[in-house]
Amino acid sequence: MKEWSIKLKKGTLRLTVLEDGTLLIASYEGQRIYKYELLKELKKNGIIGGYIDPCLELIVAGHKGEIPIARAFLEDEPPIFEYHFEKKYSRQELIHLLTHQKVPDVNFFPEVEAKMNLLSVKSPPHLIRIYPEGRRETVHEIDGYGLQYFKGNHVACNHESNSIYSEIEGTAHYSPFGRVHVFPPEKIKSVGKIHGEQNFKSAIWIEDDIRTGSTLNTVSNLYVGGLIRSSRVSAEGNITAAFSFENPRRNENSIASAGNSVFASAIRNYIVRSYRDIIVRNSIENSIIRNYHIIYAPIIRASEVRVGGKLFAHEIIDGCKLYLGLKFLKNSLATEVRKTHKEHEQGLSRLKGELIYLRKRLITLQENTAKHFAKIKGSQPAAIHGDVFLKKYYSSQVNGFKEFARKLADFEQLYKEYKREHYTLSYYKQQYEQNRPTEIIVTGKIEAGTTLHAPEQTIQFKADQSHVAIILDDITGKIKIEPLQH
Question: Which of 44, 201, 228, 303 has the fewest CB atoms within 10 Å, counting from its CB?
Fold first, then answer.
């Protein structure tokens, strides 16, 4: 048993760890404290999860005496995948490339052959116990973790269910939730406003430009051999602009959204959103960028950039506004999936209750039928055949079993959806929300006038800074600025 006290501005919080760290109890003495203040202090002192919300509410309401406030909990740790059609760079490799004015060698329109291995499981899934102070303990490996839930269009699992391969020739991508897809490419000369809104069920390779006023959506990857000019483009996979995104008239509908990554020589006066990586050969200028993973751009000028992962730049100049942390990134996609997942959880609970009720009703019918049989035992066959009550019991049981079978089928179908959402949300959480320190790396200078926004702090540089790493402390919600270590 471990005991300690935390001195707060408004009082004292006394904590006791019980049961080998699996349960944390607390008592509070002092002025009224708000829940966000309580959570902030707990996180600052290393208690980062497993909160028991109703008990926290009691402390906020003025409860006196000890009460449990956090406990260890079990969670699925999804498998770690290796995608064989993408190239990854480490933090140090990206710093090295930026220092030597080179661009990562990426291909966001990867061509794959039929039967090609696209994904392998590097580490199997595990059930883990997470303690309030963040310690993680493996309980056991999870058998039968459904790799099929990560299988998208035109792909299949191998017999061992530890890899996914392509069924056709095409180009591959994976979604923010880890599902792997392959689509055949369709080649087009160019796209313009005259074509109206274009919606494609294939990958798209455009030889020239996407001209001003166009609207284009694809379920796969998009490659543009020229410019993307003042248009609205969306790809569930990657977007590649061989030259640049250009919006000289600053049209508000000039938006590019990628479910995975974006590559361009330059981005000017554009809104670009991406879940995975944004790799820019030259500069981002006067643009709005939203990204959850990696942004790589030698020069960022007069832009608003919201960073959920890491930003690598040589120079950040002309009054940029930088937002660090997931708080500043609204994710309607994950929010919608979580909402549906919760609704399905409630639906499963409702169906389970209905199945339990039907089962009890059928048992009662069977018991009543048996009792009635006992009463008419020894009667003439004709009398038994014409017995009204016996017919009623039989009819009720037939209808009851049919209704039970329908409800059970509904439950099984909904449970499949629930499991798929559970596994893919676990993957999303692992990739984009857990153990992902937000960081800005500047190998050259970040200019005076640049504003940094963190959940609990805003800083505007009064003087130029050179060769720095700007790190968001997830516990305090504040920024740390350190010399860049090569």
Answer: 201
